[in-house]
């Protein structure tokens, strides 16, 4: 049931029922007043909590802004660069959100607290003042009425008339106070419907604006989020691949002879005990020592001393009571310096590095052992390619391995015959070979990994890929390295990459995207120059190389046909020149040009053309100062300063 209506006419009667109905309004007004006071208190706490939350988010955002990712290795992939930048993107997003929250907090007093305070004081307070006045006038009136009714009728008529006038006056004051109070209390009950609710609505609108801003930011953030998720997945795949290689390296190091030359910039380095002679004998002090054979420099630490080596001789066991000793002579000191190695094999390594008398045992792989990296006879290549073309829609192709026993059996039986065959096997015979597709793919990966014991591409590609963010430059860098492969390797690589491109076009069914293929075939096709953790960290670039080869297959092999080289000698200078030439080709290829002068050909490989002639497919020629162009269906050379590009 709602509140009863208060009629103005009831103010004159002032019946008990009127007082009861008036009491209901007063109780409701007190309840509303108490509720508003609690609401204002809760509002203050909410604003305080929002301020604390905003301060915490701002501090969190600042921490994200100040943090800097440091990745292992000298270069970073695009995925790592984006991930490292992500914290700053997150920080910027949070800062933008907090700006809107600060506006919400600043407006909270104006739109919520102040209006509620004003309604409570001005409206409810006025109603309470009206009640006080009503109660005062009622008490005064009824007290005067009681006295007036107790007047004796024997009093003079003038006194009675005066008393009647006074009571009429007080009755009118009572009626006025009652009418005003009834009007005010009902006015407040009606006003609270909007003046009480409007501030809450305005505050909620501010909240909605804040949340809507968050929705808009989330919508704008969606493309970056998707790209970052792609970067994270690639990095996770790279991590799993790198982790496996590092674990293998750790196990090899664990099982190998610990007294072997560690990889590093020095010819030899490690701890040695140096004999220091004293008046009452000698002491042996441990120093970390390095030796550089190129400049014949021997350095000890703590304190650091640098010597130029003259000779190194193994110390006979019967001439000293210490084991594993050898003597060196240096330019800076007279006499010999006696050193003690950590073991016999460790001493042998030091003697070997310093050209001592210990037997020299040098073991290393040929730098160009990778000649067999991708080479298979032409007929065998065709056979393998036919088999590779099967099962393109198989889920998890190349990622899901075959049964090891079946793979080993395949390696020792079927493929031994296939790969040494000098004739192409007919397609009908190929279909008769009942091989599980997973077994076949596992063999291909193992075979490529086995013959690629020392890859060439890995030696320089990290530098070129990290030198520039320009995708065209990277394509040219990869092309330059591929171009330096022996012809057989290059032919096999072209066949394999063409196949992987075909595999990637079926990624909706086999789930093997270009990125996934890069993770699998990057470590398979390439090897680090040395087996160290630092080198293992560059596996991620191997994956990038394979991705570039697949995604830019036609572009890379188009440039291979345009740019001819006289040598396959692998050097930093020739690779840089090749990249520069390819990069220019990438920029100018397929451009149109117009002749600003006419020209008559002097050689068969040149073009004759009139002024204003239109050329198509214009790109730099290997001849300095000349361009290769097509005019009226004929392709030849035109002077570079005779044309302008359109």
TrEMBL record:
Residues 363-557 form the Rho-GAP domain. One of its GO terms (biological process) is signal transduction. GO terms for cellular component: cytoplasm. Residues 588-646 form the SH3 domain. InterPro entries: AH/BAR_dom_sf (IPR027267), BAR_dom (IPR004148), GRAF_fam (IPR047234), PH-like_dom_sf (IPR011993), PH_domain (IPR001849), PH_GRAF (IPR047225), Rho_GTPase_activation_prot (IPR008936), RhoGAP_dom (IPR000198). It comes from the Eukaryota. The chain crosses the membrane at residues 374-398, 444-466. PANTHER family: OLIGOPHRENIN 1, RHO GTPASE-ACTIVATING PROTEIN 42. This is Rho GTPase activating protein 42b. It comes from Cyprinus carpio (Common carp).
């Amino acid at each position: 049931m709602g509140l009863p209506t208060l009629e103005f006419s009831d103010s004159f009667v002032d019946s008990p029922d009127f007082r009861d109905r008036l009491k209901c309004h007063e109780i409701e007004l007190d309840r509303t007043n108490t509720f508003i006071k609690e609401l204002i208190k809760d509002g203050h706490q909410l604003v305080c909590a929002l301020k604390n939350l905003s301060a915490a988010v701002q501090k969190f955002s600042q921490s994200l802004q100040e943090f800097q990712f440091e990745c292992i290795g000298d270069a970073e992939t695009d995925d790592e660069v984006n991930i490292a930048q992500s914290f700053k993107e997150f920080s910027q997003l949070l800062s933008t959100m907090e700006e809107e929250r600060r506006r919400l907090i600043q407006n909270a007093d104006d739109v919520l607290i102040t209006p509620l305070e004003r309604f409570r004081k001005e409206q409810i307070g006025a109603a309470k003042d009206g009640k006080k006045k009503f109660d005062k006038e009622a008490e005064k009136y009824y007290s005067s009425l009681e006295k007036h009714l107790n007047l004796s009728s024997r009093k003079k008529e003038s006194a009675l008339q005066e008393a009647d006038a006074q009571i009429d006056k007080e009755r009118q004051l009572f009626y006025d106070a009652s009418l005003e109070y009834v009007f005010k209390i009902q006015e407040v009950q009606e006003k609270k419907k909007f003046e009480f609710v409007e501030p809450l609505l305005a505050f909620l609108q501010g909240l909605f604006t804040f949340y809507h801003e968050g929705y808009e930011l989330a919508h704008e953030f969606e493309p970056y989020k998707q790209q970052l998720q792609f970067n994270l997945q690639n990095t996770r795949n790279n991590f799993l691949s790198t982790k496996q290689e590092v674990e293998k390296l750790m196990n090899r190091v664990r099982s190998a002879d610990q007294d072997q030359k560690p990889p590093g910039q020095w010819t030899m380095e490690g701890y040695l005990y140096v004999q220091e002679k004293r008046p009452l004998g000698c002491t042996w002090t441990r120093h970390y020592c390095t030796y550089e054979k190129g400049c014949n420099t021997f350095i000890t630490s703590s304190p650091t001393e640098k010597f130029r080596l003259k000779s190194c001789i193994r110390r006979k066991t019967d001439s000293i009571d210490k084991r594993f000793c050898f003597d060196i002579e240096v330019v800076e000191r007279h006499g010999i310096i006696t050193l003690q190695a950590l073991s016999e094999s460790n001493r042998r390594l030091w003697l070997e590095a310093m050209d001592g008398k210990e037997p020299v045992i040098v073991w290393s792989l040929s730098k160009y052992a990778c000649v067999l990296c991708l080479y298979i006879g032409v007929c065998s290549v065709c056979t393998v390619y036919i088999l590779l073309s099967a099962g393109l829609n198989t889920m998890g192709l190349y990622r899901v391995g075959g049964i090891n026993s079946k793979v080993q059996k395949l390696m020792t039986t079927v493929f031994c015959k296939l790969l040494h065959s000098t004739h192409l096997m007919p397609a009908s015979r190929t279909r008769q070979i009942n091989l599980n597709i997973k077994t076949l793919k596992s063999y291909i990966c193992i075979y490529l990994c086995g013959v690629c014991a020392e890859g060439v591409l890995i030696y320089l590609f990290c530098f070129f890929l990290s030198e520039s963010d320009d995708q065209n430059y990277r394509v040219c860098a990869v092309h330059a390295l591929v171009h330096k492969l022996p012809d057989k390797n290059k032919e096999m690589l072209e066949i394999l990459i063409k196949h992987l491109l075909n595999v990637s076009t079926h990624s909706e069914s086999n789930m093997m995207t270009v990125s996934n293929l890069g993770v699998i075939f990057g470590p398979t096709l390439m090897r680090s120059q040395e087996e160290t953790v630092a080198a293992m960290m560059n596996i991620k670039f191997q994956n990038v190389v394979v991705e570039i080869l697949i995604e830019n297959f036609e572009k890379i092999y188009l440039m291979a046909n345009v740019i001819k080289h006289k040598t396959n000698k692998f050097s930093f200078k020739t690779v840089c020149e090749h990249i520069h030439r390819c990069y220019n080709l990438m920029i100018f290829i397929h451009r149109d040009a117009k002749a600003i002068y006419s020209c008559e050909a002097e050689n068969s490989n040149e073009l004759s053309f009139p002024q204003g002639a239109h050329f198509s497919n214009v790109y730099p020629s290997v001849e300095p100062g000349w361009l290769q162009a097509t005019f009226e269906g004929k392709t030849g050379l035109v002077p570079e300063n005779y044309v302008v590009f359109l």
